[in-house]
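anyone seen this seq b4? input:
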Amino acid sequence: MSRRVEPQAVPLATLDFATLLRAGDGIVIGQMAGEPLELCEHLFAATGLPSGLSAFVGGNISGSPLAARPGSFRFSSYGALFRTAEIGRHAPLDIYPLHYSRIGSAIAAGDVPCDVVLMQAARDETSGQLYAGAGRNYMFEAARRARLVVVEVNRHAPIVAGGEMHRLLRVAKSPPTCRSTCWLKAIAPWPSKRIRQPGRKRRRSPHMLPGWWLKGLPCKSASVH
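predicted toks r here
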């Protein structure tokens, strides 16, 4: 069993997807208002990526995948809605004929490839805890399934109760406030138990700092800031 390692700050500029990704990786990306836009822009602008990558984009509203180099990704979704339809006109787009409520279980079962997750979160400045952003839906199942999870902390995102990231990744608390990236090394496969989600609570704070929280990176790749 691997040793548990506390999160540490890692600048976005050092996040090298060409090194972190493996050939054939399936990437699940947060959708709609939960899309980690800066991470996606960083990913789709990257060069030297391994071959055979796929990305499940759900309902995409930013169009960020349109910046991907031709032939670098094969995209998928549960439907061609919002700008996902536009993506399908520029790159291969596979549609999973699933009821929306079944997407999480399909990801957990491995029916939707999920080796890497890119998702968004907000920070509660009072408690310091991170909360998975709006539109998280099937992202908890994806994060438990994935080898690597990268979380963008958005200072403008609302806090949605029931999405505590420390419960998702089974750590004592969220990482300390940082302006860039944090990571966490996994110690075992994540449990499939569903986290109960109580009523929603939304709050916006100008004090939430942007950042990224990674699960699964090797210790030597992190530097504290």
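Helices lie at 17-20, 37-44, 84-88, 103-108, 139-145, 165-168. Residues 82 and 112 are 21 Å apart (CA to CA). kinda curious what u guys think
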